Amino acid sequence: MSGLIAIDVGNSRVKLGYFPAAGACDNAPEGAAAALLPIAAPRLPEPDSTLGLGSDESWDEPLAAWLDGLSIDTLRVAIGSVCGPAAERIVAALRDEAQRRSCEINVVGLTHENLPLVTRVEAPERVGVDRLLTAVAANRLRRPDAPAIVVDLGTAITVDLVSADGGFEGGAILPGVRMSARALNEQTEALPVSEMVELDGSPDAVGKETLSAIRAGLYWGAVGAIRELIARQRDRLTVTPQVFLTGGAAPSVARLIGGPDYVVRHAPHLALSGAAAAAESLASTPGGA
């Protein structure tokens, strides 16, 4: 069996998704979900299986077990990375697996230069490819006449604008909750380390001791920043945007950042799906992968 392994290499985690070859499965959306898809764009691919690997974990056993479950005879890989050493590590691990299984492996690196996306920023080569991949995916999900705002809750939180004609317009970057928690501890003498790593479980806004106060500040500060950034980007537009949310704990945050004229749609694997969509585009281009 063949298909595509899409990889999103972040600063603290590596996410892999398996996308069967076209026609190998039938997971097309129906009913209300299908009505959200743009008429002109192809359907956004969704992974049949995913694997998450922490940067400080051993990868050999979970990767081998995951690949065993896929029963594939060719490793076709599309990888987007914001962390070079982690990308080299996962590619080396996959090459070892390919050699052990006596199967072929073909790896394509995704960058701003080979994505099906117009980037309207000053230095596209410096934009994290994960942001661009989520924009590629948003272009498959949004209505043809509507811009999109994409919120990604990762090591850093990003809020990016995609224009109605599909161009990546840029956006905003702020620290994720784990990064902010570490900064509070490292840059002060008395504040303890908070184990909060994602926006999960809304806390009371009035903390009764130091750790709960830190949690309240991290959580509601991030939610407030996201809401304000969406509102500011919304003010630039003449057409109501569609808002897509991805990343850790996104479902619990979606209900908190909606607005009076838009709803927030949770898309759990937006970067992986964007990588798969980009690989589809490359494969259909003469001379592409």
Automatic annotation (TrEMBL):
UniProt-listed Pfam families: Pan_kinase
Keywords: ATP-binding, Coenzyme A biosynthesis, Cytoplasm, Kinase, Metal-binding, Nucleotide-binding, Potassium, Transferase
Primary location: cytoplasm
Protein origin, superkingdom: Bacteria
Record: residues binding substrate: G128, V129, D130, R131, T210
Compartments where located: Cytoplasm
Pathway noted in the entry: Cofactor biosynthesis; coenzyme A biosynthesis; CoA from (R)-pantothenate: step 1/5
Binding positions for ATP per the UniProt entry: D8, V9, G10, N11, S12, R13, V14, K15, T155
Cellular component terms (Gene Ontology): cytoplasm
CDD domains associated with the record: ASKHA_NBD_PanK-III
EC number: 2.7.1.33
Transmembrane segments: none
EC category: transferase
Assembly and oligomerization: Homodimer.
Function per UniProt: Catalyzes the phosphorylation of pantothenate (Pan), the first step in CoA biosynthesis.
Protein name as it appears in the record: Type III pantothenate kinase
Species annotation: Pseudobythopirellula maris
